[in-house]
Amino acid sequence: MMNKGNPIGIFDSGMGGLTVAHAVKNLLPNEQIIYFGDSAHLPYGDKSAATIQAYSIKICDVLLQHNCKVILIACNSASAAAFELVKAYVGSKAQVMNVIDPVVEYVGEKYSNAKIGLIGTKQTVGSGVYAQKIAARNASITLGALATPLLVPMIEEGFYKNEISEQIINQYLEKPELEDIKALILGCTHYPLIKKQVSDFYANAIEIIDSSVIVAKALQALLAYHNLVSKEKLTKNRFLVSDFTPSFQLAAELFFQEEINLEKHILWE
Ligand code: DGL
Question: Which among 20, 39, 84, 16 is positioned nearest to 266, based on CA atoms?
Answer without folding.
Answer: 39
